[in-house]
């Protein structure tokens, strides 16, 4: 077990657990009685992850996207984790740059600012100017981070083995989640992957019927210079979203009007990603949303993205309507459709839980409802009923929560339902008619025509099979196996009883008419066989306990 090994990093892990007072670990290591392992409290878990370092901070950030796994207290605490670490000295970054570039540094960039504009656990970002004069951002991987991650991945898998011993770990397949996280972490070391996500998002948002695509910006990737450890992209000149000073802008717009326009733009951009494209930026926190100097809005950092298949998109669209209607029964049905668990669920209990949860919103104005909070509560109800939902549901809920939180902070006058109502209406129209209504109507007309032509013939064939007694019915009824076995046993015993009776009667008839030794021997043999079978039948009946 990883806890018994003595490498320095593992000793450090133990020290962090003990320093933060995880009682289960104390009992385990001191030889005391270790009860069923339990997770640390939310505050203790956050402190442990911070003390363990940047990789574990990322683990905490991932867990904060899983309200289907953790309670609201854990989600709230882990959502405050920030991926901020001291920057690496320029001398070390420069070595990485020179290794990754095809040409000498001086022949690629005219200037590079050695002071980073941002520093994270995986990489840090510098501003630079290409030889041709274009401003770019350089995202450079921290030296040695791949070795650190490889070591920490082994430790995380060890921790997962420990937590897997709890009922929580067994119910939610913690080892599978750890495997998912480690794969995501390893993939994050390849910046060409993030560059591909950025390009895909840029293409998707370049066209829309909901907003003006020229008002939303995703940085253009410089593929000639981008490698697995170096990401080079267009420099976007602006400030974090919530730091924007709209009162002193130079575009002549009223600040209140501009806030409303930007809020509407954000909702439409993200609703398109979630419900139409099925590929979405999954980390829209304030630092990844920029207000550019020209008044446009930019999305930064596509390292964390989510995907939704068409079926899931349709279910989630219906879930939006069910929540707006406060329809507990429909919420329960849609949750089961989303579930990827084969465990039986008590539908009445699930509906009652949703009814209790939604009842508190019955007399609340739509403008006062925190929609993303309801989404979290929906996932919590599913978790309490041991319904395992796909992992992308956590990213979906976290994206909506971040989006709504940023929008409400940026524009306190936000009316969430006024923003999403026309979008939901259009989504249902798309689901009913598709993007091309004429084509959808023609396809429906052809289906109806085909059905009308085939139905009489199908009915005729069905009647023919019924009247000719060739129709076969295959029925599968649950709970009848026990009845069938009981009836089989009874029939077998009845058959044996008849057989025994027949042997006795045959032996008696032969005995009364026996005139030779052979017939007497046959009569005796028949009596002996009948006696043995009768004795076996009595014993088997007594042993079954069903002698009535």
Low-confidence stretches: 1-6
Proportion of β residues?
A: 5-15%
> What average pLDDT do the residues reach?
80
- The computed structural class is alpha+beta
What's the end-to-end separation, in Å?
A: 58 Å
- The outline comes out as elongated
Q: Which percent range fits the helix content? A: 55-70%
- As a whole number of angstroms, the C-alpha radius of gyration is 35 Å
Count helical runs: 21
Number of strands: 11
Major sheet: 5 strands, antiparallel
In short:
Helix content is 59%, strand content 8%.
Descriptive keywords:
single chain, 548 residues, alpha+beta, 5-stranded antiparallel sheet, 4-stranded mixed sheet, 21 helices, elongated
Topology:
Layout: H1 8-19, H2 23-30, H3 42-52, H4 54-63, H5 72-78, H6 90-100, H7 105-108, E1 109-112, E2 118-119, E3 123-130, E4 135-141, H8 145-163, H9 167-171, H10 174-188, H11 191-204, E5 216-218, E6 230-234, E7 238-240, H12 255-277, E8 279-281, E9 289-292, E10 297-299, E11 305-307, H13 310-324, H14 328-338, H15 347-359, H16 371-384, H17 392-410, H18 416-433, H19 437-467, H20 481-513, H21 517-544
Parallel strand pairs: 5-10
Antiparallel strand pairs: 1-3, 2-3, 3-4, 4-6, 7-9, 8-11, 9-10
Helix pairs in contact: 3-4, 3-5, 8-10, 12-17, 12-18, 13-14, 13-18, 14-15, 15-16, 16-17, 20-21
């Amino acid at each position: 077990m990883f806890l018994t090994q003595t490498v320095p990093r593992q000793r450090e892990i133990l020290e962090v657990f003990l320093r933060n007072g995880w009682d289960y670990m104390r009992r385990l290591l001191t030889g005391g009685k270790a009860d069923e392992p339990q997770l640390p409290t939310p505050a203790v878990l956050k402190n442990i992850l911070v003390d363990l370092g940047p990789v574990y901070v990322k683990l905490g950030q991932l867990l904060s996207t899983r309200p289907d796994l953790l309670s609201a207290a854990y989600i709230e605490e882990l959502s405050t984790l920030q991926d901020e670490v001291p920057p690496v000295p320029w001398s070390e970054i420069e070595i990485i740059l020179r290794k990754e570039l095809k040409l000498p540094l001086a022949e690629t960039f005219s200037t590079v600012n050695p002071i980073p504009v941002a520093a994270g656990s995986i990489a840090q970002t510098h501003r630079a100017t290409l030889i041709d004069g274009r401003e770019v951002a350089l995202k450079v991987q921290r030296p040695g981070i791949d070795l650190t991650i490889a070591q920490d991945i082994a430790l995380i898998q060890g921790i997962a083995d420990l937590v897997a011993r709890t009922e929580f770990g067994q119910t939610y397949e913690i080892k599978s989640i750890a495997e998912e996280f480690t794969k995501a972490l390893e993939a994050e070391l390849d910046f060409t992957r993030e560059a591909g996500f950025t390009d895909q998002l840029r293409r998707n948002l370049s066209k829309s019927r909901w907003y003006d695509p020229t008002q939303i910006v995703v940085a253009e990737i410089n593929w000639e210079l981008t490698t697995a450890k170096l990401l080079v992209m267009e420099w976007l000149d602006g400030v974090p979203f919530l730091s924007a000073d709209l009162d002193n802008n130079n575009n002549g717009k009223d600040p209140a009007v501009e806030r409303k326009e930007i809020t509407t733009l954000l909702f439409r951009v993200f609703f398109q990603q979630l419900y139409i494209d099925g590929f979405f930026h999954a980390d829209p926190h304030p630092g990844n949303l920029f207000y550019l100097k020209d008044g446009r809005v930019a999305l930064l950092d596509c390292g964390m993205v989510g995907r939704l298949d068409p079926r899931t998109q349709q279910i989630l669209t219906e879930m939006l309507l069910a929540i707006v209607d406060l329809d507990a029964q429909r919420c329960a049905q849609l949750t089961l459709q989303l579930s990827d668990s084969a465990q039986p669920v008590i539908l009445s209990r699930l509906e009652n839980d949703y009814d209790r949860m939604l009842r508190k919103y019955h007399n609340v104005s739509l403008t006062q409802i925190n929609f993303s909070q309801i989404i979290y509560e929906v996932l919590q109800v599913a978790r309490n009923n041991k319904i395992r939902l796909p992992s992308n549901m956590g990213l979906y809920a976290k994206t909506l929560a971040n989006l709504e939180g940023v929008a409400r902070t940026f524009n306190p006058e936000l009316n969430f339902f006024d923003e999403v109502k026309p979008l939901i209406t259009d989504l249902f129209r798309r689901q009913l008619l598709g993007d091309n209504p004429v084509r959808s109507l023609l396809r429906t007309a052809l289906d109806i025509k085909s059905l009308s032509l085939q139905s009489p013939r199908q009915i005729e064939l069905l009647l023919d099979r019924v009247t000719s007694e060739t129709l076969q019915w295959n029925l599968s009824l649950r709970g009848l196996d026990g009845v069938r076995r009981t009836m089989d046993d009874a029939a077998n015993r009845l058959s044996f009883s008849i057989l025994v009776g027949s042997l006795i009667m045959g032996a008696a008839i032969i005995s009364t008419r026996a005139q030779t030794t052979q017939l007497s021997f046959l009569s005796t043999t028949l009596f002996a066989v009948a006696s043995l079978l009768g004795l076996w039948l009595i014993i088997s009946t007594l042993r079954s306990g069903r002698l009535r």
